[in-house]
Specification:
The protein has 402 residues and is mainly alpha-helical. The chain folds into three domains: 26-66; 72-175, DNA polymerase, domain 1, CATH 1.10.150.130; 179-401, Orthogonal Bundle (hpI Integrase, Chain A). It has helices spanning 45-68, 72-81, 88-101, 116-128, 134-153, 167-173, 185-197, 205-214, 218-223, 273-288, 315-335, 349-362, 367-374, 379-386, 391-401, and strands at 6-7, 13-14, 18-20, 26-31, 37-42, 229-230, 235-238, 241-245, 254-258, 267-270. Mean pLDDT is 84; it is low at 171-179 and 247-253.
Length: 402
């Protein structure tokens, strides 16, 4: 049923909250956003409505402030809640870096008051006072940039102050630029020859050789089981990975079976005869040392690469072994005054994956085939790796072609 219109003594319609008083004045009753009941008065209806407009405008500003006057921590929670279609270990990493390095510092600031200078100062403080590496700061930057970008998308802030906050810092302080391109074919061959014969390093030879010649990510190597190897057809079925969770609130610290990085990471890749021999060499070593797989991760077991206690290998252990092997290799070159071999930079497990990409490039493997072998979704990623070929290969290609 329609509500009957109210009018004043002159026949003008009165809106909700408006009243004509007996003394001839007009009043407007309203409730503020905080629940307070208030009334304003005017001698004329037009003056009353001018005051009403001011009140509505001020209330709109107050409501906007209540909505948008938020801290970086508030924005992080909104952004993080929307991250539903990414791997759990990736989400755990995001939360870890934010909670440890941002939440109790920049996170308490209002999001619209954070400047690029604030972020740069924070990174500098982490590096100088906290002794945080440039590589870790780049991970922090990745999270912070995405959180602030989501604030721009919500019209909470007009621009992203983290856009270039890390660029200058990386240029001046990063020590890890040399490791991302991996080794050239010649460097890798010299390195593997040394590791195979070195009493201190030979234990790691099968793993290093396998990673250099397959290009698997360390999480994929850790999760590889004997049943994933088809020795009759020399094929590897890459269908899962093993990650270590130590940052989630819902799960206790420990190993987890994780989905692969993307659909393209699910792949079957061929292996050379020598790679198969190296796997059997690893199996023989474990049998001689009575090393048995003692690990069951979400129902998965019988993993190939184990430490001396029969547990799944961890990335930090592999990186430590690589660091030690590189140090010994470079020392060997110095002692023998070897000019044919070049000293190696710091290597990580991911450097070995890039070394495999260099193998493919220097052997003129088709770019689409390389993309499939490396498990890349975007061919641009493969192209970017292919552009970082060694100086020796560039010279060799030039002199052979011209």
């Amino acid at each position: 049923m329609a509500t009957e219109k109210r009018t004043d003594s002159k026949g003008r319609e009165l809106y909700c909250g408006e009243y004509e008083r007996k003394d001839g004045r007009y009043s407007y009753r309203y409730t503020t956003m905080f629940g307070e009941k208030k009334t304003i008065y005017a001698h004329r209806l037009s003056d009353l409505r001018n005051e009403e407009a001011k009140i509505l405008y001020l209330e709109h500003i107050n409501i906007s402030k209540k909505i948008f006057n938020i801290t970086l921590n508030d924005q992080f929670e909104i952004w993080f809640a929307a991250k539903q279609n990414i791997r759990e270990n990736t989400k755990a990493d995001y939360k870890y870096f934010y909670d440890r390095y941002i939440r109790n510092s920049l996170g308490k600031m209002l999001i619209d008051e954070i400047t690029a200078f604030d972020i740069k100062c924070h990174y500098m403080s982490l590096n100088v006072n906290g002794r945080i590496s440039a590589e870790t700061i780049s991970h922090i930057q990745n999270v912070l940039y995405q959180v602030l970008k989501s604030g721009v998308e919500r019209n909470v802030i007009f621009n992203n102050p983290a856009k270039d906050a890390c660029k200058e810092f990386n240029r001046k302080h990063s020590k890890h630029t040399s490791i991302k391109s991996g080794m050239s074919v010649k460097q890798a061959e010299d390195f593997l020859k040394y590791v195979e014969k070195s009493e201190e390093c030979m234990r790691w030879y099968p793993l290093f050789y396998f990673m250099i010649n397959t290009g698997l990510r360390i999480s994929e190597v850790a999760g590889l089981r004997w049943e994933d190897i088809d020795f009759n057809h020399n094929l590897i079925n890459v269908n899962h990975s093993i990650v270590y969770h130590n940052r989630t609130e819902k799960q206790a610290a420990g190993l987890r079976v994780s989905n692969l990085k993307n659909d393209s990471s699910h792949r079957i890749i061929p292996i050379k005869e020598r790679t198969k021999e190296v796997l059997l060499l690893e199996k023989k070593y474990q049998e001689e040392k009575n090393i048995q797989c003692n690990t069951i991760v979400d129902g998965y077991t019988d993993f190939i690469f184990l430490n001396r206690y029969g547990n799944v290998i961890r990335e930090e252990c592999v990186n430590r072994a690589l660091k030690r092997a590189v140090f010994l290799f470079n020392s060997y070159l110095d002692e023998n005054d070897s000019r044919e071999c070049r000293p190696l930079p710091l290597l990580t497990s991911h450097s070995l994956r890039h070394t495999f990409a260099n193998y493919l490039c220097e052997n003129n493997v088709n770019i689409k085939v390389a993309q499939k072998l490396l498990g890349h979704t975007d061919i641009e990623t493969t192209m970017n790796i292919y552009t970082s070929v060694s100086r020796e290969y560039i010279e060799k290609e030039y002199y052979e072609k011209f």
